[in-house]
Amino acid sequence: MAKPKPILPASKHPKDFVIATIGSHSALQILKGARDEGMRNLVICKKGTERPYKAYGVADEIITIPDYKDWNSALEEELIKRNAIVIPHGSFIAYMGHDRVRTMQAMYYGTKEILEWESNRDMERQWLERANILLPRVFAKPEDIDKPVIVKFHGAGGGFGYFVAKSPEQFYEVKNKKYPDENDFVIQEYIVGVPIYIHYFYSPLTKELEIMSMDKRYESNADSIGRIKAEDQLAANIHTSYTIVGNIPIVIRESLLPELFEMGDRVVKVSKQLCGKGLFGPFCLEAIVTRKLQIFVFEISARIVAGTNPFIEGSPYTALKYDVPMSTGRRIARDIKQAIEAGRLEEILG
Ligand code: ATP
Question: What is the pTM (predicted TM-score) of this model?
Fold first, then answer.
């Protein structure tokens, strides 16, 4: 089904609009950001998940549905009636699925087409290669493994089941024993370094790229294995998994900032050649920095990431630029507000 064109309200008053999202991931920040920019907000919660949005008092309206699969045209009618602009986040995309996002009738902040470019590993790689981003090498077949690799299964939420191997024999040993029926995977060079997630924002209105903040993830049990000695790790037969439990703020050494800005510029520039309006709003480059200070990017997220959540009161970087606490959620609301006031709403909707 083709992507529908939302009917845009003519109003230039931000108060005539509502910022809406699903109650999970980074919703608290998105709702608070809307409030801080003087806009109304709305959160759609699966029954039983409303408590944080009530407890922190950040939601103007909570709509409860039995399950996210019950997101239907009646709900969309409600959103359209309220002039709601929907903000996608990681859980939103995961719960809704790409097809439903694409055919959504309500106003949507961002470029829908870019979701395919970020979620399809081949397309994602093509995009980043064209942007001249340093990427981990990919091995076409297990027989080619000649150095440590990380094996990633497709759709493995939170890196579950990923494993490390250093030879074809080791690959087959783990694969055949633990994942005999899984055949959708990628074999990627294992980059030894520290992970860092860089949170960008690109406004189509100001045409400016901003670095909002950075984080590293707190992952179980990758971040817990090192707490016991190596022989106990072996004895306990613990396997590394990367389930995200939380996020930890980071600042990067300042001399790397120019390169990070240039990487973001190139990614945005190429995205405009790939699809329609290209990438705009929040996005994240997920990188590993080596001891030689090479920055390898292993993934891009073309929307707000939960790693921005420690920065509801702003980050060291946004503190430099803004005279108010500027979270990514608030920056989204500001983009929307400015677009409405300038009669440029169409430019920020996908
Ligand atoms: P998604 O964000 O699509 O859900 P994921 O979180 O499941 O992906 P990744 O983000 O790709 O999985 O990676 C999970 C973990 O594996 C991260 O901690 C990351 O640092 C590590 N990792 C990923 N790729 C590499 C690599 N090439 N070399 C070393 N470590 C890697």
Answer: 0.95
